[in-house]
User: What shape does this take?
Amino acid sequence: MTDPTDDPRLTRAEERIAHLLRVVDELSELAADQATRIARLEARVERLSARQTQAEGDEGGGVILGDERPPHW
Assistant: This one.
């Protein structure tokens, strides 16, 4: 009787599983890195948006609507 561990199909399947496990680990690490970068970028956008809103408020100017003339006219 032959040893089942000598089966080339089993060996190939084990190799493929090992490769897939490595790829899954790499993708998981990549996804975690991207999540961290996205969180940082979202925080940065929030800060920039708040800064822009404050700068617009400090200027005292508003948006000109419709037929309204700008204040310098």
